[in-house]
Design goal:
With 145 residues, this protein is of the alpha+beta class. Helices cover 41% and strands 17% of the residues.
Length: 145
Amino acid sequence: MRLKVKVTKLDLGDVGKACTAAEKVLASEIHKSTRPYVPMLTGAFDRNSRVIGNVIEYVGDQVNYLWNGVKMVNSKTGAGPRVIPGVGPRWPKGATLVPTSTPLHYTTDHHAKAGDHWMDRSERDNGRKWQEIGEEAVAHGLDKY
């Protein structure tokens, strides 16, 4: 995602510090406003997501599986995942997954907009708001430095 931010003060050191601080603020906002788009069955995948500095991480065996929106199978066995109650789908350690043409069905019981490519869909809906927050965060940071 790219944001354009207008800067009126030109002290490059201050601009750099302000932008670094703004990236962290913006990452937290993006993470928060993207939650309704994140697939959620048991809640484990959503709970394990986190913001580290300016990076949003979604962790777990199922990230690729959920992001692509198609069922994945073990390349050697052709088997799908073993579903562990309260945890979600899991494959054997070291398994190489290949996509199938079968689409996933995402439940919307917990997150109304849940589905594949959640960050992209959230950006379409929230991108303008994120840009405004980024601009404000940079401007506020420039006032501090």
